[in-house]
Amino acid sequence: MEADRLLPLLQDLHASHAAHQPARHTPPLGSTDLAVWLQVWLREENIVALAAESPQGALLGYLIYELQNRPALPIRAAETRAMLHHISVTEAWRQMGAGKALVEAMRAQALAAGATVVAATYAPFNTASAALLQGMGMDPVLTMAEWRA
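Predicted structure:
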């Protein structure tokens, strides 16, 4: 997938996180820096990007996930996890099923690749992501808290 195509949605996603959690997220980057970082990330071996497109080929949304092989530990079994890192849908297509279709496609691909767990994190302010994931049968299993200097 071409980073330049995803860039406008990624910029919106990042701007929202930076606005809600400025201590955690850097101010919005210039498009060149963001595009370079995204292109490098998308080339990583276990990173998968999916796009939702209109019949005319317009980008409606995208999702990026990672297949993680987690070895067994004395406290948990080995697992292959599909970790959802980003999901963003064009504002005009929100609440119309594009995000759900992306998560369903991710789950199907990840299971076919051997995943036994599908996981995601989302920020407390992002109620849309929380509702989407819970609607897909993904329930919170832990809460992460942090302090920043």
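Summary: The mean pLDDT is 90.
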